């Protein structure tokens, strides 16, 4: 009769497991394996977890996982900063939230959203040099198109994160835009 009826017995273990599988650093993100880039990160985590923690391979994979997560956070932070500067202070998080239930608002917007996303990649430094376009940001651009704010977003991104010759990154927004 030694059954454990405590519903909170595994709570800490569940949180630790969720955090480990949390690819976007958003607690309980159920969409972590929905996009290709999510699967890549998930596979890295699976491989790392099969290695001995003291091994050089484990340390290298752990660093790569950390770096990829930090890059994602940085990109999301840039998008949020631009959205807030456009007046979407309260809506920024919800505009950036993409789940497996998210849909494109209008199929005719898909082509325009892709074009804007490619233009952001090629003409700004909102994404790092090695960044592969994420499906998540296609949904965000679609939302901006629906709000008639996509062109303003691109202009703001061009100003805040201009493409610099030689691939230098523009990590800081000009002081005039921060006021």
From TrEMBL:
GO terms for biological process: melanocyte differentiation; melanosome transport. Coiled coil: none annotated. GO terms for cellular component: melanosome. It comes from the Eukaryota. It holds the Pfam family MREG. This is MREG protein. It comes from Vireo altiloquus. The lineage of its organism: Eukaryota, Metazoa, Chordata, Craniata, Vertebrata.
């Amino acid at each position: 009769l030694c059954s454990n009826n405590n519903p909170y017995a595994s709570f800490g273990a569940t949180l630790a497991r969720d955090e480990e599988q949390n690819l976007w650093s958003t607690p309980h993100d159920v969409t972590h394996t929905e996009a290709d880039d999510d699967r890549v990160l998930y596979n890295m985590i699976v491989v790392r977890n099969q290695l001995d923690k003291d091994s050089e391979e484990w340390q290298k994979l752990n660093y790569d996982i950390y770096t990829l997560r930090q890059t994602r956070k940085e990109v999301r932070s840039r998008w949020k900063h631009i959205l807030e500067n456009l007046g979407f202070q309260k809506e920024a998080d919800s505009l950036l939230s993409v789940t497996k239930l998210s849909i494109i608002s209008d199929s005719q917007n898909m082509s325009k959203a892709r074009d804007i996303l490619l233009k952001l990649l090629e003409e700004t430094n909102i994404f790092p040099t090695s960044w592969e376009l994420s499906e998540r940001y296609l949904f965000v651009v679609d939302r901006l198109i629906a709000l008639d704010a996509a062109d303003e977003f691109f202009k703001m991104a061009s100003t805040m994160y201009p493409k610099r010759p030689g691939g230098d990154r523009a990590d800081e927004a000009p002081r005039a835009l921060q006021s």
